[in-house]
Amino acid sequence: MRSRGSWKIRIFIGLAIVAFAYFNKCSNTETNPYTGREQHITMDAQQEIAIGLQSAPEMAQQHGGLYPDERLQAFVDAVGQKLVNNSIARETPYQYDFHLLADDRTINAFALPGGQCFITYALFKQLNEAQLAGVMGHEIGHVIGRHSAERIADSQFWQQTMMGATVGAGDLGSVVGAIGQNTLLKNGRGDELESDELGVLLMIQSGYDPYELIEVMKILKAAAGPNRVPEFQSTHPDPENRIERIKEAIVKYQGR
C-alpha cells in the first residue's frame, strides 16, 4: 500500500514532465512562411533533408525498387523539377528528387522530409502529364508544409505527455495516449487538404491545368472501390470532399 506522500511525489513528477512537454512545444512553435500556419517543429530544414535522403533507399526497396525504364524516370523527374522551378517551391531550402517506383500493384505516392518524392508505377501508368504534375505537386506540398517534421514533433510531445500522465496518474496515461492518437489522425487529414491546395497553386504557377487534380481524385476513388474505409476511420479525406476543396483552391488562386 502506497502512502499519500508517495502519490504526491508521483503527481508532482508527472505534472513537471507534462509542463516541460508543453513548454518545449510552445518554445518550438514557428510560422510556416509558405502556408502562414503556426507549427510545432523541432528540427531544421537540413535535418529534414538528411532524414529523407537516409530513408529514401529503404522506402524504394519496399516498393520493389525504382522502375527500370530510365526514360520514364527522367520524365517523372522533369515534371517534378518543372513544378519546383516555376513555383514557390524554388524558394524553399529543400532538395527535391522525384522517383518512379517499380510497384505495379499499389496505387500510391508519398514524400519524405526534405524533398524526396515517390510515385508507384501502378498510379503513374493511369495519369497524363498534367495529372502527374498534380500528384507531384501534392507531394511537394507535403514537403513545403513540413508535415513529416510536424508529425515527428507531435509524436515527441505526446510521448513526453504520456510519460508524465503515466507517472502522475497511472491508467490516465492510456487516455492521454488516445487523445494524442486522435489529434495526429485529425492533423493527418488536414495535411492532405493543405497539400491539395498547395498542389493546385504549384500547378497554376507551372502552367498546368489544376482541374486535372480533380481527375486524379476520381482515379483514386475508382481504385478504392465500393469498400473504401469511411473517412472518419482514415487519415485521408474522402475523394469527394477533396474535390470540393480543390475547386475552392482553384477559385482562390485562379479566380474561376
From TrEMBL:
GO MF terms held by the record: metallopeptidase activity
Family that this chain belongs to: Belongs to the peptidase M48 family.
Domain named Peptidase M48: residues: 73-249
Key word Protease present: yes
Binding note for cofactor: Binds 1 zinc ion per subunit.
Keywords: Hydrolase, Metal-binding, Metalloprotease, Protease, Zinc
Name of this protein: M48 family metalloprotease
UniProt cofactor(s): Zn(2+)
